[in-house]
Amino acid sequence: MDALARKLGLKTDSTIFFTSAGIMILFLVALLIAPDPIGAAFGAGREWIVTNLGWFFILGVTTWVAFLLWVAFSRYGAIRLGGNDAKPAYTNASWFAMLFAGGIGTVLMFWGVAEPISHFATPPRTGVEPFSATAAADAMSFSIYHLGLHTWAIFAMPGLAFAYFIYRYNLPMRFSSVFYPFLGERIYGPIGKSLDIFAILGTLFGVAVSIGLGTQQINAGLTELWGVPDAVITKVLIIAVLTTVAVGSIVAGLDSGVKLLSNINIGMAVGLLLFVLFTGSTVFLLRAVVETFGLYITNLLPMAFWNDTLARYSSEGGAWGWQGSWTVFYWAWTVTWSPFIGIFVARISRGRTIREFVLGVLFAPSIFTLIWFAIFGWSAMEIDGIGPEARAALGDQAGILSAAVAESIPLAMFAFFDNFPAATLIKGLAVVIVAIFFATSSDSASLVVDMLCTGSPDPGPWHQRVFWGVSEGMLAAMLIVLAGDAGLTALQQVITVVGLPMFILVFIMMFSLYRGLSQEDLSEVRVGAPPKREELKPQD
Q: Is 252 exposed, middle or buried (0-12, 13-18, 19+ CB in 10 A)?
């Protein structure tokens, strides 16, 4: 394989590169041949995991939030990710923009209206009247819980572990490096390479599903705007265009490509946010933003430990009821992305202290998420009608967005904009924002996969990076063309099941990171060869 890599002009670990590519192709062929059986098998696995281990996911993510905050405010918080003289490569604004665009920017566009409305119409807690003021408050609390601190802890936990071991120990920029305290030099052997291959495949399939789902929202927007057919060929063309933009950004590199697209997109997203704020019920929304902070702070601790324990006695949802298909699914899905986002965040965070890293990664995107959901979510619920009197006054217009979400989640955002001035223009802008968010997710994922293969933060040959970008687009397109919705559904089931071993690995990262931190001599800076594994013993 080394000879083939040299012949192709690749600068990579040939075992990791070719094995990852080969498994991706073989799995795709199997998924295309038998999407329904594979989907059913992994669907059963997902059901078992949700029913029997859902508590582990909920407790685990809350544990990561607590651990990260402890590290940030402990004596280890002053450790710089790099030497004492290392300086951040990006301004705070550019750093945040790349965090946001590479993380959950697409999710906010997709769920900003749909999730609050879903919980508003179908309250998570039993005994809450749908469309009531209580349902509205609960809908907002749960939406932010799902996409606030807890989601970013799933990204920050591996991100901090990557940054620490890569920059403090000068280890390769690979998933396996964070397990050095337990594996030692074996990170360079079969065990380490297997971990790297697993992380690459999780990233590739996770991005492919997101591209596939994103094209559905873009296609829905184009259908709403110009009557473009909601068809396979349309989705393939959308993927081709997005992949072309992503490849251009990949060739340009992190500084010129991803940074530029991220800054443009966050500016457009903020503009869209301000448009909704100032053309909607401005005073109501300003009050709602302030109140939403209070709702989140008040409900965060109870939600963080809520396990729907009494569902079997209070609902028809069985052992888990509502939470099994929402919170547990969210955490299992998100953790499959954690190596990708984590190593991307580590790559752009060199020179920052651990305290800056944790507080920035956890709180900056979470605060933006809260404001986003407060403005879009409360606007949507007000349009839908909060409480019986408001709904009676609205007449036939009451529940218009609830009906739109029930019909098609990708259409929810566009149905929402029908209630604002210059609706056609704003819908067009929303389509562009979603498209660029998906392009930035794709190009940053391709750069990360390339890093996982090369083990270096420096970019490999341009054709090597382009290979991964094109692979992601082709994977999503082939699923849509040859397997349709069944292929995407099956792949969603697969990566949800993959989320369990990934979740366990991230849990181990927490102990690995603590073991490394406990050996820090805070009076000195250690950047060089890593210590021997037998030296890594926690201090008394």
A: middle
